[in-house]
Amino acid sequence: MSTGLIIAIVIVAAVVVVAALLAARSRSSGPHGLKQRFGPEYERVVAQHGGDTKAAEQELAERVQRHGDLEERPLDEAERERFAARWTTAQEHFVESPRESVSEADRLLADVAAARGFPAGTEYDDQVAALSVHHADHVDGYRRIHRAAQAPVREDQQSQAATEEMRTAMIEARSLFDDLVTSSAGGTGRRHRAGVGADTGSHPHLPWSADRSRPKES
Questions:
Q1: d(Cα 214, Cα 167) in Å, to the nearest integer?
Q2: In a domain, 204, yes or no
Q3: Rounded Cα distance, 6 and 128, in Å
Q4: Are residues 187 and 83 in the same domain?
């Protein structure tokens, strides 16, 4: 086989590979691909844009363009144990100090995400956008816990209703925490669906169930 023929074959093969990659990217950034990739996040963004799917899909496509190539760094066992211990401490203190527990959970999610290779927690909006591309099923839990942590203290902060809001925020945030920690040990982003409060084998249960019952007294 001549050198010229070999070069021609290599060039053709390269063109085929590039075309396949471009086609795959087009499918993932098209309307159907975006809806499949983002799931509940797709519906949230459409609602945020007042039902304008074109504007929503443009925003989501821009997120994929900015963050789609991000490679998540796996956590080692020591890191997972350290983060799990922090979460356990936060949840155990919830009954006595719900607001402080929520604030720690917010900081913890920012730290875990940064450790996985996402933008730093100081760049909250950028970090959330990147998380939405790779952990779309649970990223809204981060938004909820962040809003709860940043909300001004109200006079009724210790009321049952306020405590219930924070408890729900903790449960939803836990879903993202599980996804970030356990996916680094074999899960795969949206395909990994840890149950709320489920025993993942790397850290203990929440001190309350997912059926919106009251926190258990410790």
A1: 9
A2: no
A3: 47
A4: yes
Tell me which residues of the chain have a pLDDT lower than 70.
Answer: 1, 4-6, 8, 10, 12-32, 154-158, 184-218
Query: Whole domain around residue 162: which residue ranges?
Result: 77-191
Assess whether 95 and 179 both reside in one domain: yes
Report how far residue 133's alpha carbon sits from residue 209's, in angstroms, rounded to the nearest whole number.
Answer: 28
Task: Report how far apart the first and last C-alpha atoms of the chain are (Å, whole number).
Answer: 77
Pinpoint the alpha helices (H) of 68-123: 77-92, 98-115
Please tell me the number of Cα atoms within 13 Å of 131 on its side-chain side: 31
Q: Which residue has the tokens 């795969």?
A: 188
- Residue 105's nearest CA partner among 144, 145, 132 is 145
To 10 degrees, the CA torsion angle through 195, 201, 68, 48?
30
pTM for this model (two decimals)? 0.70
Query: Do 82 and 40 share a structural domain?
Result: no
